[in-house]
Amino acid sequence: MLPAHRKKLTAVFFVLLLAGLVLVLWWRRVPVPGVGLILPHDTYTPRREAFWPSRGRILDRNDSVLAYTGPRYLLVLPSWGHLDSTRLNRLLGWPDSAFEYRSRDLRRRELPLQLDLTASEYDILRRHQSEWPKLKLREYTARNYATHVAAPVLGYAYANAQPFLYQAQRLARGRFYRLRNGGLETYYNGLLKGSFGAYHPLVDVLNQPHGTWATDTIYHPGQDLHLSLDTELQAYAERIMRERKGYIVALDPATGEILCYVSAPTYDPATITALGRGRERSALLLSEDMPLLNRAALQASPPGSVFKLVNAAVALQLGGITATTGFRCDQSLIHCVHEHPDARNLTQALKYSCNPYFYQVMRNVVNNVPDSLVQPVDTCAVRHQNLAAWTRHVKSFGLDTLLGVDLPQERPGFIPTPGYYDKRRGRCGWTYGSIYSLSIGQGEINLTGLQMANVQAIIANRGYYYIPHFVRSVGTSGPLPRFREQHRTLVDSVHFAELIPGMVAALRRGGTAELANLDDVGISVAGKTGTVQNDEGDDHATFAGFAPAEKPKIVVAVYIENAGFGGLSAAPCAALIMEKYLRGKIAKKRKRWENWLRCGDLAEQGH
Predict the structure, then answer these.
(1) Sign of CA dihedral 555, 560, 563, 565
(2) Given 3-state DSSP classes, what are the helix, strand and coil percentages for the chain, each rounded to the nearest 5?
(3) Which of 165, 211, 215, 213 shows the shortest CA–CA distance to 186?
(4) What pTM was estimated for this model as a whole?
(5) pLDDT tens for each residue of 29-56
(6) Penicillin-binding protein transpeptidase domain: from which residue to which, for each copy (predicted)?
(7) Are strands 45-46 and 201-203 parallel, antiparallel or unpaired?
């Protein structure tokens, strides 16, 4: 038995201990069930919760996946010694010498050597890895392309293309910076990659949050891009262009959505980022045909006679002509490339593409002197005023400016002004006789393929357009707002309607584009051919038009370098694209074009 005083001391000790514990708990505010005490901030544990977004996919108008982020597979070889390549070929079901062919680009690199595999090849090697102890397999995440078409459209994200960028700087020196095309992967990179998110909670001993210790960043998942591109039409267009140099642009005039976009010659989009394809990248960079040049957006060229449509519309608006105005085909003014009757009105002039007619059309605009002016007239001032009015109306077609298409790079083209000629020849040193090549789309005028197609969309819509674009929806939110804005020209709709009969007549018997006629399948096509003069070789062939002529659903612009007369090469190409899109197939009588035309000159085939 403890003495009484020791019992009292023990009791006092426990009371003081309990009181001290309560005091500490109160002071430090640790949550105790049934008590509700809370710790001060300096005793909370800081934590960080991170969220990494996956890159969004790219899909075509039919929701077929074109690009996605997913697993990739590598075969890693520590050395070349003692590798039985014949046995490896047999195991993977490859033809003889396939391994040597696939690894030919790796032999000069430092070890270890890495070879891309398909998922099935990777699985076979994984199951037989015990038989190949020196081979290593690696799985990683990368950008995959599920299509072999539309390389200039899809492009690449710079972060995924470092080997290519290095090769470009080393092999092509500064030329690369004029040719590179990051495509949609670069233009929409911020939306595709999403944004990293991190939360920074302070938690107590029971893992309950109590505020934050740093500023949170909001997580946004990578957005999918739904394109207007028709992959089947795209593949068809690339196939008929083959290795020719030029472009095809097709779009829906009602929305500005681009249906197919070919810059030829083209290449496999995976070439830029895939491992083991360095030799192919080198060939692209050093090729004289410049396949990396995004021709429809970056190559601004004279449009040729296709531009007569713009000149006619502006002349109608400015009073230079009416739809019934006729002119003689006066060869002393300007040479006409083929014989035809005199054009008694605008419809016939467009049908025959009469150069002297359009020479006189623009002369009426530039040299026009209003009757109200009192003589003598300052012809130099009047000429400046008239050309300035012409320039202002032409530019309202979206020319001499960036259209704003959703690609990282685009050229504005060029439309000359009075100030441009003043600077080159003096204020009164130029006359219509020194600038008349503008009347037939030559001289200083330069348009891109996107602008050529957009001009046709304007005519199809009778005076307005939507900015051409590839992405019809970002996630579920639709296209970017600026692609929904309607842009109108300074030409009244009635004058565009006056162009249509001549454009339709151009594809009928006796017209410059009669080979592109689709009347046999019930499709009325409206269009205009062009032959662009080229001092360094054969002329370039162009065609631009739309179908059906009454309620257009597709606009097509074709430009083929060194292909000669537009009616014998570019126009048939456009007709095939239109028929393929509107009918889904090609009539039997034109099937042979797919086999031997390939956008060549039908005249060479006796047609």
Answers:
(1) positive
(2) 40, 15, 45
(3) 165
(4) 0.85
(5) 444 444 444 545 557 787 777 767 789 9
(6) 246-579
(7) antiparallel
